[in-house]
């Protein structure tokens, strides 16, 4: 088929609306749905690890950042598959299927009923849930990372040469769809958490993309430039190693050792790429701080007051992540339209590399703000026992005060709600002739209930938690009671016994108390975010109009008092740093990259994100800091150090115009080809003369022998 026929065929397929190919609308919707699915899942991922899989904060952070790192390592694989084998369209389709399967597996892993054989609300085979979760995350990382370098480039392929303005607008709309998907998902996903509709968009984006199949301009794979660049660099290194002896003359640049096999234009382009990649070396530290918004900062939010008048329990710790996409949508136009022009009018040379340096400093300030917030939070959190100390709390169910002795500590019991710490088991003296030894297991809390008379007590373990709305019931009544709150139930609680803790919706839930005779009592209790209570039903309790008056709430853990709004300054600083650093970095990389190697620098940029998350893994596992605020300051110190190194590297960097350099080599190319051709002809002639001389010599020898 001729070029003219191909052009006609393409023109007939590329129907337009307002100058834009119809196909790009399918691509934009596809990206919106994909980002909705990805960020929605990621918004609650660390909470899923903590509350469903019951992992501690450090391990949840480690797995979270391992997943994010994989998501930014797999784009290199996706780019190679698309450019060298399947093409962008098929790569997106096939990896979208992998992505969808991963989301489905992840959804199934969160269904506790699949292993909850005794129907007590707790999975009986947690190993299966963990295995399914890891498999799902691996498939999602392969899917989302594999299509990441393909979708935007595939959208750009839909435009013709005369649609350069529309193409530029498309990339702005494309970036907007990413943030719109992120914003809506972090708002909606916590509400839909635990429902199958949470994973609906991932199925939608695959279907939407396939629907537009007949309208796409699909370019055939033409070989991956990253592979070619790697081969060129590898040959230069190996050739230099073979000629390491001092008898060989030195060359201007080590990449010049590839001239024996590769043309000078490619070598010059590789030099430009390596020059930028060298500047990328300090950049992962920025992403190490930035991506902790989804891990450490989310965990920090769980210990704060998240009362934003939400309708669903325990969702504000993830919904606070909406601050970032909202600020991006606000700050990008402000920075581009006001801040940068104002700086230019002040005649300040605010180069791209200087902007990136400022962005890194803003990220460091964000972590200083996070450390200050953490210091305030630590002052309000309850003191939990260490691994070598136990704690005991006393609840008096007798009418009137009683005096007891715990070890050498005299205690007057009324409605005590303070935990008392003991370094070792102690003798509990409840009165004359009633001395008992109370054993406190190390690192645990015990609640000691004084019931009926001063010589009788029961001991119950207490739960460590300052992040949920949890409550339990102590039945001191003379018969078995059944207590429910909403759809949750405490079950039957026998006399002088304690129920397990259960999660309760924030606000003022109603507790319905029933006995075997069908009598009913309704009690309400206001719960603050992160609070924990024991509701004591005393022996004097009686059903009737005023039955709730005798029920006594004992606060185990006070509500979180630091409001989550205090995280807004750190998010504002971090997002400002992202706008200045990330957007500028992409623009700088694009302007300094050769025309055919922009994908190489894009892969290098994504690789810095992956390495940044690996840094978090190393610090989270290696650091022995007990205080979270100290870890925040550690990351700040590391970033400031890296920022100084980067500023020195940026000072010596010389900006180039890749187009002019490529034009110079393009002008020299005919001369270089002619020179190479002449050299090849000379070698051929010399080789031919040698061969003929050799033949004549052989012939004379044969005649002599004859």
Give the helix tally: 19
Gap between N and C termini: 63 Å
Shape: elongated
Total DSSP E strands:
19
* Poorly predicted segments: 1-13, 194-198, 309-315, 452-456, 463-467, 690-706
Strand residue percentage: 5-15%
- Measured on Cα atoms, how large is the radius of gyration? 34 Å
Biggest sheet features: 5 strands, mixed
Provide the structure class: alpha+beta
**Helix fraction bin:** 55-70%
The mean pLDDT is: 78
Biased composition (Polar residues): 694-706
Family: Belongs to the major facilitator superfamily. Proton-dependent oligopeptide transporter (POT/PTR) (TC 2.A.17) family.
Protein name: Solute carrier family 15 member 1
Main location: membrane
Describe the protein.
The longest helix is centred in the last third of the chain and has 48 residues, at about 660-705. The protein has about 700 residues and is α+β, with helices and mostly antiparallel strands. Residues about 1-15, about 195-200, about 310-315, about 450-455, about 465 and about 690-705 have low confidence and may be disordered. The chain contains 19 helices and 19 strands. It starts with a helix and ends with a helix. The protein is elongated, with a radius of gyration of 34 Å. Helix 5 runs antiparallel to helix 8 (about 200-210). Strands 11, 14, 15, 18 and 19 form a 5-stranded mixed beta sheet that branches.
């Amino acid at each position: 088929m001729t070029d003219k026929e191909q052009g006609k065929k393409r023109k007939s397929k590329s129907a337009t609306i307002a100058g834009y190919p119809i196909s790009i609308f399918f691509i934009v919707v596809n990206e919106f749905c994909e980002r909705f699915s990805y960020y929605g899942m990621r918004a609650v991922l660390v909470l899923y690890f903590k509350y469903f899989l019951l992992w501690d904060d450090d391990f949840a952070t480690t797995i979270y950042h391992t997943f994010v790192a994989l998501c930014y390592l797999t784009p290199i694989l996706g780019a190679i598959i698309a450019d060298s084998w399947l093409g962008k369209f098929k790569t997106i389709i096939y990896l979208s299927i992998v992505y969808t399967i991963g989301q489905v597996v992840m959804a199934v892993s969160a269904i506790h009923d699949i292993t909850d054989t005794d129907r007590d609300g707790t999975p009986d085979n947690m190993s299966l849930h963990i295995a399914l979760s890891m498999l799902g995350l691996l498939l999602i990382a392969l899917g989302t990372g594999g299509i990441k370098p393909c979708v935007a480039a595939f959208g750009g392929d839909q435009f013709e040469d005369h649609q350069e303005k529309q193409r530029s607008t498309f990339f702005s709309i494309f970036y907007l769809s990413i943030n719109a998907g992120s914003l809506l998902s972090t708002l909606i996903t916590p509400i839909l958490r635990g429902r199958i509709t949470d994973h609906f968009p991932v199925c939608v984006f695959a279907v939407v993309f396939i629907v537009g199949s007949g309208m796409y301009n699909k370019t055939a794979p033409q070989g991956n430039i990253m592979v070619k660049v790697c081969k060129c660099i590898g040959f230069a290194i190996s050739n230099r190693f073979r000629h390491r002896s001092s008898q060989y003359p030195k060359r201007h640049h080590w990449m010049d050792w590839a001239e024996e096999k590769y043309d000078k234009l490619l070598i010059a382009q590789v030099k430009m790429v390596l020059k930028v990649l060298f500047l990328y070396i300090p950049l992962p530290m920025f992403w190490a701080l930035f991506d902790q918004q989804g891990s450490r900062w989310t965990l920090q939010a769980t210990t704060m007051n998240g009362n934003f008048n939400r309708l669903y329990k325990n969702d504000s710790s993830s919904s606070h992540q909406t601050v970032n996409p909202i600020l991006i949508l606000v700050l990008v136009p402000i920075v581009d339209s006001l801040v940068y022009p104002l700086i230019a009018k002040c005649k300040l040379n605010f180069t791209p590399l200087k902007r990136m340096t400022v962005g890194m400093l803003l990220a460091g300030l964000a972590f200083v703000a996070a450390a200050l917030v953490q210091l305030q939070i630590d002052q309000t959190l309850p003191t939990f026992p260490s691994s070598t100390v136990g704690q005991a709390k006393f609840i008096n169910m007798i009418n009137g005060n009683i005096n007891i002795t715990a070890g050498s500590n005299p205690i007057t019991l009324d409605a005590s709600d303070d935990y008392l710490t003991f370094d070792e088991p102690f003798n509990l003296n409840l009165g004359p002739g009633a001395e008992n030894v109370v054993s406190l297991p190390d690192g645990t809390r015990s609640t000691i209930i004084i019931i009926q008379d001063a010589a009788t007590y029961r001991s119950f373990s207490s739960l460590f938690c300052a992040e949920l709305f949890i409550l339990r019931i102590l039945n001191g009544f003379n018969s078995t009671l059944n207590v429910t709150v909403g759809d949750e139930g405490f079950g039957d609680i026998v006399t002088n016994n304690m129920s397990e803790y259960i999660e309760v919706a924030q606000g003022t839930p109603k507790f319905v108390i029933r006995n075997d005779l069908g009598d009913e009592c309704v009690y309400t209790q206001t719960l603050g975010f992160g609070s924990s209570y024991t509701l004591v039903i005393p022996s004097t309790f009686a059903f009737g109009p005023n039955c709730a008056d005798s029920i006594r709430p004992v606060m185990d853990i006070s509500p979180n008092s630091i409001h989550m709004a205090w995280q807004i300054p750190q998010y504002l600083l971090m997002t400002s740093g992202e706008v200045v650093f990330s957007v500028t970095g992409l623009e700088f990389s694009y302007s300094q990259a050769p025309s055919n190697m922009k994908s190489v620098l894009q892969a290098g940029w994504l690789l810095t994100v992956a390495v940044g998350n690996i840094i978090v893994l190393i610090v989270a596992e290696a650091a022995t800091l007990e205080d979270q605020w100290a870890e925040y300051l550690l990351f700040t110190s590391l970033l400031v150090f890296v920022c100084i190194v980067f500023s020195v590297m940026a000072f010596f960097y010389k900006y180039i115009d890749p187009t002019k350099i490529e034009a110079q080599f393009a002008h020299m190319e005919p001369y270089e080809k002619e020179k190479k051709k002449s050299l090849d002809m000379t070698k051929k002639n010399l080789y031919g003369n040698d061969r003929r001389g050799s033949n004549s010599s052989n012939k004379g020898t044969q005649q002599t022998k004859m």
